[in-house]
Design goal:
Structural class: mainly beta
Strand content: 35-45%
Helix content: under 10%
Radius of gyration: 24 Å
Number of helices: 1
Order of helices and strands: HEEEEEEEEEEEEEEEEEEEEEEEEEEEEE
Oligomer: single chain
Distance between the termini: 66 Å
Length: 354
């Protein structure tokens, strides 16, 4: 009888202990984001911890096709454009939480530029599929639409114009990169009046091969210039604000997208690199970072930059972390947010500065 009582007591204590342990264990939400990777990439002082799941959302509710570009507003909100018309604009906070979405009219939603217009921030959106360039409020109200260059006599064909990017000068002039069309940079006034076009296709210094991006370089306040992408040339090309060619930053191996200025540095997504037989190779993207002297100092996901006799040697993807990097956004803590094209509809990746 005593043995039976003792056995029952031991079984009771065992079950109670297990139950207590079960209740003391942390509760995991099965729909939470997966554990972040702890891999560190990059070079020198520009090294980053990879958070691949940072921007993950429910694709049934908030789908993306290609995450084309991202900017950060004064409030620290991260605003991204996709070519998914269910929600062209996605706005995140820095934790990766979705704050809101808007936009259904940009089937080729591609270029996204933020500009402070007298204290009020506005967006410029490029859609190469429809040939539209529009200025909007941060909540999506259209404030201005640039005229199509064919209506101005600057182009002969409607289909020849496929704008990919804008940059806004301090005086409000709007520069449009026709990266998927005729390879010109078009300069408009703040009111949408065409001032000039320059560049065009070709392999001369002042020509472009995929004029994919454009930005204003204000690092030298006395000599503000225009930095333009010539992606198939693996280069950024520098021009005066009135369209005169100045110089080339050659980035051998790197099919760079738009240049992004932050402080003294230039950041860019590299869509492809020259891996196989030095050809443009699929799923070979990385990020590149240049310093104030236009020297590459880090290639997160890519090979370490090496210069010989002042010339940058071939830079290519080193680790298959990215598919095709299309844009980089830099926050106030110098973390990076990487948008990708043709990456199986994945959301932005965060690179945490270490």
């Amino acid at each position: 009888m005593k043995k039976s009582i003792l056995k029952s007591r031991r079984e009771f204590l065992k079950k109670s202990t297990l139950t207590g342990i079960a209740f003391s264990l942390p509760v995991f939400n099965i729909i939470s984001k997966p554990e972040v990777a702890q891999e560190v990439i990059g070079h020198g002082d520009f090294r980053y911890k990879v958070h691949k799941a940072w921007g993950n959302l429910d694709p049934e509710k908030t789908p993306v096709k290609n995450c084309h570009e991202m900017v950060m507003d004064k409030k620290g909100r991260l605003i991204m454009i996709t070519d998914e018309t269910k929600n062209n604009i996605l706005i995140y906070d820095k934790s990766g939480k979705l704050l809101t979405t808007w936009g259904h009219e940009f089937p080729g939603g591609h270029g996204l530029t933020l500009f402070d217009e007298g204290g009020e921030e506005v967006l410029f959106i490029c859609d190469p599929e429809t040939g539209r360039v529009v200025k909007t409020s941060l909540d999506g109200k259209i404030l201005l639409e640039l005229p199509h260059p064919k209506t101005l006599g600057a182009y002969e064909s409607t289909q020849a114009y496929k704008p990919t990017e804008t940059a806004i000068a301090p005086n409000g002039d709007i520069y449009v990169a026709d990266g998927y069309g005729s390879q010109y940079i078009l300069q408009f006034s703040s009111k949408g009046e065409l001032i000039r076009k320059f560049g065009g296709p070709g392999d001369e210094d002042a020509n472009f091969s995929t004029a994919h991006g454009v930005c204003i370089d204000t690092r030298d306040k006395k000599n503000i210039t225009l930095l333009c992408t010539s992606r198939a040339h693996n280069a950024f090309k520098r021009f005066t604000l009135d369209g005169k060619y100045l110089s080339t930053i050659f980035l051998p191996g790197a099919y760079v997208c738009r240049p992004v200025m932050d402080g003294e540095n230039i950041y860019a997504g590299v869509c492809w690199s020259r891996l196989r037989y030095l050809n443009q190779t699929a799923n070979s993207g990385f990020v590149t970072i240049l310093n104030s002297k236009d020297i590459v100092i880090s290639n997160p996901g890519g090979t370490k930059p090496v210069y010989k006799d002042g010339a940058l040697q071939l830079i290519v993807q080193e680790k298959p972390i990215f598919n095709h990097c299309h844009d980089v956004c830099v926050d106030n803590d110098k973390n990076l947010y990487v948008c990708q094209w043709n990456a199986n509809k994945t959301y932005p990746v965060k690179l945490e500065r270490v």
